Amino acid sequence: MFIKNIEIGEIFIPLARPFKTALRTVNNVEDIVIKIETDTGLTGFGEAPPTAVITGDTKGSIVTAVRDFITPAIVGMELDNLDGIFRKLNSCIVKNTSAKAAVDMAIYDLYAKQHNTPLYKLLGGNKNLIETDITISVNPIPEMVADSLDAVDHGFNILKIKVGKEGLKDVERIQAIREAVGPEIKIRVDANQGWNAKQSVQIITAMEDKGLNIELVEQPVTAHDFKGMQYVTSHVTTPILADESVFSAEDAINLIQNGGADLINIKLMKTGGIYNALKICDIAEIYGVECMIGCMLESKLSVSAAAHLAAAKGVITKADLDGPSLCKIDPFTGGPLYEENLIRMNETPGIGIEKVPGFNE
């Protein structure tokens, strides 16, 4: 069985409410989707969001990378030559991690379908239920409190609160949410690179002094400020999660060895897909560092690929896979079931998505 063709499409899904972070505001999921077809007619699907402020990828760059570089490199290759395919995928063009991730997950989808097995089981897992948090966008405090209470009413036990735009005002923001939702709800704080190192220590220490019981703080400083990450991690008690600071296995080793974080957030759009994400998992296991599996602003298609990885790897102990919950509609058929805070893995072959808009309607 060999790769015959790669087709490129696009999806448009409105969000239930605007998604706001320290970096951007988004109203819709407007992602590139791909379909890989083999000579036997078997198909695999992938997705890439244009998250220029984080990965540098735009719609145009994703399409160009897939059409002009990746497709010529891997079309005609035998599907059983999995390692060879991924080596070609990762060497045919530098960076462009979102484009690579879309193709990577489609290859894994095909490979698992070929073996008539759910992807998470093919990757060695047996965890069929995952709990995810849900993101609370940065807004005026009363609106964030209302959104947090609404999330709890819908069954979410873990809230990921976006901050990073107003400095010490974020302490007041988190305190108000904590008082509203009570002590049992887990709160994760995501600054999206919005603070500097000293400011981060001041803000996190203030949260600790107020007893706000924060589970973790994600990416408090800019992505390449490794010394800043190390400074924050060593000066607070709250666990620090590295997100934008870790794209590759090399980044993970550097950060861990230099004490730059307590936890690592793996995202397929940063790593270039499951193949490279597995390398980070292996490194984290060696060093005894737990990981979170996260996503950009993605739909059910690529989030489901990330869920399969999470279900397969024990080192991934936390999930931030709320993309489908943020969308107003679900245009896909098949795949894992998203039941508010729970993701129930599919037992059908591959990632499980059977229908993608624009390809096989």
UniProtKB/TrEMBL annotation:
Cofactor(s) essential for the protein: Mg(2+)
Protein name: Dipeptide epimerase
InterPro entries: Dipeptide_epimerase (IPR034603), Enolase-like_C_sf (IPR036849), Enolase-like_N (IPR029017), Enolase_C-like (IPR029065), Mandelate_racemase_C (IPR013342), Mandelate_racemase_N_dom (IPR013341)
Any one GO MF annotation of this record: magnesium ion binding
Tagged with keyword Magnesium: yes
Gene3D superfamilies, sorted: Enolase-like C-terminal domain, Enolase-like, N-terminal domain
Cofactor descriptive note: Binds 1 Mg(2+) ion per subunit.
